[in-house]
Design a protein that fits this description.
By secondary structure, the protein is of the alpha+beta class. The protein is built from 10 helices and 13 strands. Among the domains are: 126 residues, Immunoglobulins (Immunoglobulin-like), CATH 2.60.40; 126 residues, Alpha-Beta Plaits, CATH 3.30.70. Helix 1 packs antiparallel against helix 4. This is Epsilon-sarcoglycan. InterPro entries: Cadg, Cadherin-like_sf, Sarcoglycan_alpha/epsilon, Sarcoglycan_C, Sarcoglycan_N.
């Protein structure tokens, strides 16, 4: 029996197991993709019809969601994933068990919720992982398919078509689907809801023969250069996939596990989970002992105060005891500058004393003026009680009251008053 026939037979087995009306036992193989469909038609029979239904066909459209978890734990095992796109679509459990889970039955609790009637139904799925001599297949290739979602790729017909195309290109004797991962789980972005865009999916397959020349074409320098320039590489066998699957050849990964150095991790043996017996609990006494805080006082207050005192003494010595003084400054200053400075200081002091003391006699420019023609004594422009300091010392007599203009003789010989 060829591989496609074996895969179709396995798909039929998975479908039959999914539709049985009882808690199920399934037997996946380690290193081979495991898919289990949670069909809404099966769980709808567990919910009684709701009385207010006006039509008999309304019950078939009830929104049903599923919750899956490992029995006794809130989540599923690390290798098992679950997806359900809408409450009106089937749920899918999928993943790839490893050899570490062989011989350990895994019980998955499946709870179905009817979002209209609020009824629930619970079943158990017992996963018995079997070992296989073909695992692991030495040559593994991972393809990135851009025009598929993960739930579409998990369908047995679509996955069978893809494996058939890979087998036609690779020509192996044994070919298995190892794992399927959504591009969103690899850091991909959610596509825009236009033009029927897909999120993309990674599909890993394994075979027992070397990679074909077609698959090796992605490693050529020309195609690597085109990928670095974000251009589509030239692959001769791309047309065998293009009719149904759009593959991003720049993201294909070819791994030969026979050439990969194994990594051995030394893990400690797990214990029983029970703490050793170390005796009874001895709580502290209720009465607390007195504590001496003198040492704390010295550290928190006395030491900073001593440091501050030392800094104060140093600062005082620098500012008071290290001053040069006026005498030293005068000795280093030229005599002419000292004379100028002294005269300026004397003039400034005299002016300040004059502005403060108003009892002294007025300057001659501020005394009454004797008119030489009329003989009249004209008073000064300011009163005797003038107290401001903004008045200049020299006064002009252009605006004096009772001023008499002296007639001037014109060249023409006429007199004008």
């Amino acid at each position: 029996m060829d591989f496609v026939g074996v895969f179709v037979w396995l798909s039929v087995v998975v479908t039959i197991l999914s539709r049985s009306h009882a808690d199920r036992n399934v037997y996946p193989s380690a290193g081979v993709l495991f898919v289990h469909v949670l069909e809404r038609e099966y769980f709808k029979g567990e919910f009684p019809p709701f009385p207010p239904y006006s039509k008999s066909g309304d019950a078939s459209n009830d929104p049903i969601t599923f919750n899956t978890n490992l029995r006794g734990y809130p989540d599923r095992p690390g290798w098992l994933r679950y997806i359900q796109r809408t409450p009106h679509s089937d749920g899918v459990l999928y993943g790839s068990p490893t050899s570490e889970h062989v011989g350990k039955p895994t019980v998955i609790e499946i709870t179905a919720y009817n979002r209209r009637t609020f009824e629930t139904a619970r079943h158990n799925l017992v996963i018995n992982i079997m070992s296989t001599e073909e695992f692991p297949l030495p040559y593994q290739a991972e393809f990135y398919i851009k025009n598929m979602n993960v739930e579409e790729m998990l369908a047995s017909e679509v996955l069978g078509d893809f494996l058939g195309a890979v087998k036609n290109v690779w020509q192996p004797e044994r070919l298995n689907a190892i794992n399927i991962t959504s591009a969103l789980d690899r850091g991909g972005r959610v596509p825009l809801p236009i033009n029927d865009m897909k999120e993309g999916v990674y599909v890993m397959v394994g075979a027992d023969v070397q990679f074909s020349s077609c698959l090796r074409e992605v490693e050529t320098p020309q195609n690597q250069l085109r990928c670095s320039q974000e251009m589509e590489p030239v692959i001769s066998c791309d047309k065998k996939f293009r009719a149904q699957f759009h593959i991003d050849w720049c993201k294909i990964s070819l791994v030969d596990i026979t050439k990969v150095a194994p990594v051995h991790s030394h893990r400690p043996d797990p214990g029983t989970g029970v703490l050793p017996d170390i005796g009874e609990y001895d709580p502290p006494a209720e009465s607390l002992k007195s504590r001496d805080y003198f040492a704390d006082f010295l550290i928190t207050l006395a030491v900073p105060s001593a440091v501050a005192l030392v800094l104060f003494i140093i600062l005082g010595y620098s500012m008071c005891c290290r001053r040069e003084g006026v005498e030293k400054r005068n000795m280093q200053t030229p005599d002419i500058q000292l004379v100028h400075h002294s005269s300026i200081q004397k003039s400034t002091k005299e002016l300040r004393n004059m502005s403060k003391n108003r009892e002294i006699s007025w300057p001659l420019s501020t005394l009454p003026v004797f008119h030489p023609v009329s003989g009249e004594v004209v008073p000064p422009i300011h009163p005797d009680n003038y107290e401001t300091t903004s008045m200049p010392l020299m006064q002009t007599q252009t605006n004096l009251q009772n001023q008499i203009q002296i007639p001037q003789q014109q060249p023409s010989g006429k007199w004008y008053s």
